[in-house]
Amino acid sequence: MGSVEGLLEWGVLLRFAAIGTYAAAFVSYVARLAVQKLKLDRAATALAALGVAAHTAYLVTRWIAAGHIEILARERTGDVLTSMDRFWFMISHPPYTNLFDALNFVAWAMMVCYLIIERKWGLRIVGALAVALALVAMGEASLVTDKQIEPLVPALQSYWILIHVGMLFISYSLFTLGAVCALLYLVRTETPTAILGGVTAGIAVLLLALVGGSRLLFGATFEMAPGWQHQIQSRLHPGKLLEVTTAVHVVPAGVEKAVKYFTPVAGVGPFLLAAVVLFVVGAVIYFRQRNVEAGVRATGYKVVAAGFGLLTVGLALLVYRIVSSPEITLPAGVRLAPGEHGPFRLSLASNYALGLIALVWGTTLGFLLTTPLRHRISESLPDPRKLEDITYKVIIAGWPLLTIGIVMGGMWANEAWGRFWGWDPKETWALITWVVYAGYLHTRITLGWAGKRPAAIAVFAFAVVVFTFMGVNLGLTGEGLHTYGAG
Question: I need a surface site. Which of 23, 151, 455, 484 has the fewest CB within 10 A?
């Protein structure tokens, strides 16, 4: 275990080095937008490449450590392993088998794909968004409580995990970059700011409505699932207990299946609802004035900015309520799911509700900050046809990976559960994602569409990817085999 612990310690240092280098690269990419200098271009690219190198080394240390842990776990049970057994266990536990590792892996895959795009097409302006998204993913990973590497449970001890999960995560990374290129195409072709602002406000309303539900929209009450911290037996260290945080589940009267329990978060609902109202008003104003290019002087821009201010206050209050959460007492008569117990508190750990609200906040902030720089950004972009071609090539590279990932997932499900398809929420939304991107490719290849329509489809398709990756895990489509997160 000494070598394993040493690897993990090195991994922590490498992860911090990657985050710091990505942050420096982000500053360089943003500065490059303000000051057109070749030295900044080279510095930003060099920092991004250095960050990917540190990030790659970090994932390698996690993968090797996980392989050693798998071997140690079997040797402690008395198994005699051949050299082939050892080789298999060294590679059978990739660095994306839990939420913490998955978020770090997605960030790495996105940056690798971006550097390939930059190398091939020199599209450095995508770098600022790519690095920002990588930092967001790694920051979200830092909130996860369960960062331990444990031997895989029997259901995950399969070679399919190397193909199914990895393919899907890489395809999601490509789709993210494809959406960024499509968005830049819309900017380059002088799509009115009113349309971009209206869509931004509309997406914000949709995501906030999904997170808050009817209680937020009709009662100005924001609810969140509290978490309960408990200990589980380590499968690697006999007698050692690991602390994890899980959402509270209750069993309603007359129902056998447990569901998440939600509790109101004081004071947050009115701010979020007011932000939703202003975003709706902003979207309507933008739609009515969609042919008027007024930039930051537009009424719609001012209304969306006011909604963003209220959202900022609501998000800050939500974080404060979570951090300072007292013990939560469940109402009398509520029947807890078997094995769950208090104390119950709001938790930052694996909290997808908080993550989605933060995503809305960041997206809206991005629109507000880039609108004044729109002409500068547009002038620095390449020919629209080049952007359109890059978008198409990136998506057509990701779609086969998504297809293979879904098919391999079905084959794995058949081995593990005896059925290829069970309409689990994650399976369903992965299929919806596949259909939407198939529709994009159909319009381009068969119908011969070009211009703004397929670009708009690419941006919409990415919204479906976000919901598949985060919304389903939050439980917005019901509990499933792939659902996790505190609330």
Answer: 23
